[in-house]
Each structure stands twice: as structure tokens, then as C-alpha cells.
């Protein structure tokens, strides 16, 4: 009993969270808070591509240094690389899922990104396949020194948390991104400084756009602004 308590006690916080989560799901009748019809689970494999693009964008200083090794990998594994990108194109062609909210709400950056790369033109969404491949390669490369259990837990959790999501939303990527970011090793002061400057620029631009860009909807008198 003493041994059992010694094993369980350090995990009490996790156990409480798990029990609370299960209780919530049972009492709520599901995971969704609000309009359940608007958040039905659906297989959306391109979410992994969007996540890789998101990570490249927000961890850019740590991905630039991987370009050389990525090109070397592609040249050494031409057939594998070609098959991967062909698979990405096929998934993009046949499993791209569009949530009505994505097309309806022009207050979010993702609305304009989707219009530019996915809706108005055919080719850009396919031409992004090498970028997705580079992103996934770099994520794995940065985490390759982690234990097998960590990698298994991370990627299984990533797939389970974002692939069933029909809606393309940045917030779905924040937690897996943070877990990835804090597990990057051997960082230089130059990379850290570039990251800080990059985030400062993003924040300043976001605040400026939010404060200066105003527009109205036809069915509302309230001012609308661009947000994440």
C-alpha cells in the first residue's frame, strides 16, 4: 500500500485533471461547448500540413538552419521524397475540408490566407507540398534526440488533437507548438534574438492592423476589425 501511494501521490494532479475531463465530457454530452452542430469531428489530414506551415512561420530562426540538411536529405532519398510530396498532393486534392465559418468570417487572418492560397487559385495549394515536407522534416529533426516514448506521445497527441478538427484555427496549434518549441535544444543567442525581434514585429503589426483597419458588415452597424 505504501508503495502504491508513493506511485500515485506524485500523479495526483494529473489524475484530478483526467477525472475532471471525463466528468465534463459525460455531463456535457461531448467535448464541444456551444453549438455542437458546428463542430462535428471529421478526418482532416491537411491539418498536419497547416500545422507544419504554422511551426515554420513562428519558429523561423530554427528552421532556416535546417534548409541545407533538408536539401541533402531530399537528394539522398529522391524516391521517398517524391512519393511523400505526391502523397501530400493527393491528400490536399481529396481530403481538403472547408468549414463554413472559415469562408464566412473575414475578421481573421486565416480567411485571407485561405482565399489567397486555396480558393482563388488551383495550383498554390499543391505547390505548398514541398513546404509542408520541409516543415515535417524539420520538426522531426529537432525532436530526434528525444526518447521514443516522448515522440510517440507527442505525435499521437498531435494527430488526435488536430486531425479530427474540421475548422482551420491557429489556436489548435498553440499547445503542440509550445511543446515543440520548449524541446528545441542547442539554441544560439542569435536565434533567440531573431525570434524575439520576429515576435515583437508580429505583435506590433497585429496591434496596428487591429487598430487601423475598420470595416462594416451589411447586417451590422458595429465596427469590425482584423484579429487572429
From TrEMBL:
Entry's Gene Ontology cellular component terms: endoplasmic reticulum membrane
Highest taxon in the source lineage: Eukaryota
Reaction catalysis annotation: an alpha-D-Glc-(1->3)-alpha-D-Glc-(1->3)-alpha-D-Man-(1->2)-alpha-D-Man-(1->2)-alpha-D-Man-(1->3)-[alpha-D-Man-(1->2)-alpha-D-Man-(1->3)-[alpha-D-Man-(1->2)-alpha-D-Man-(1->6)]-alpha-D-Man-(1->6)]-beta-D-Man-(1->4)-beta-D-GlcNAc-(1->4)-alpha-D-GlcNAc-diphospho-di-trans,poly-cis-dolichol + a di-trans,poly-cis-dolichyl beta-D-glucosyl phosphate = a alpha-D-Glc-(1->2)-alpha-D-Glc-(1->3)-alpha-D-Glc-(1->3)-alpha-D-Man-(1->2)-alpha-D-Man-(1->2)-alpha-D-Man-(1->3)-[alpha-D-Man-(1->2)-alpha-D-Man-(1->3)-[alpha-D-Man-(1->2)-alpha-D-Man-(1->6)]-alpha-D-Man-(1->6)]-beta-D-Man-(1->4)-beta-D-GlcNAc-(1->4)-alpha-D-GlcNAc-diphospho-di-trans,poly-cis-dolichol + a di-trans,poly-cis-dolichyl phosphate + H(+)
Residue stretches spanning the membrane: 7-27, 47-67, 79-102, 122-140, 147-168, 188-211
GO molecular function, one term: dolichyl pyrophosphate Glc2Man9GlcNAc2 alpha-1,2-glucosyltransferase activity
UniProt EC number: 2.4.1.256
Bilayer topology: Multi-pass membrane protein
Compartments it resides in: Endoplasmic reticulum membrane
Pfam families: DIE2_ALG10 (PF04922)
Keyword Endoplasmic reticulum: yes
Pathway info: Protein modification; protein glycosylation
Key words, A-Z: Endoplasmic reticulum, Glycosyltransferase, Membrane, Transferase, Transmembrane, Transmembrane helix
Protein role: Dol-P-Glc:Glc(2)Man(9)GlcNAc(2)-PP-Dol alpha-1,2-glucosyltransferase that operates in the biosynthetic pathway of dolichol-linked oligosaccharides, the glycan precursors employed in protein asparagine (N)-glycosylation. The assembly of dolichol-linked oligosaccharides begins on the cytosolic side of the endoplasmic reticulum membrane and finishes in its lumen. The sequential addition of sugars to dolichol pyrophosphate produces dolichol-linked oligosaccharides containing fourteen sugars, including two GlcNAcs, nine mannoses and three glucoses.
PANTHER family: ALPHA-1,2-GLUCOSYLTRANSFERASE ALG10, DOL-P-GLC:GLC(2)MAN(9)GLCNAC(2)-PP-DOL ALPHA-1,2-GLUCOSYLTRANSFERASE-RELATED
Membership in a protein family: Belongs to the ALG10 glucosyltransferase family.
Protein name according to UniProt: Dol-P-Glc:Glc(2)Man(9)GlcNAc(2)-PP-Dol alpha-1,2-glucosyltransferase
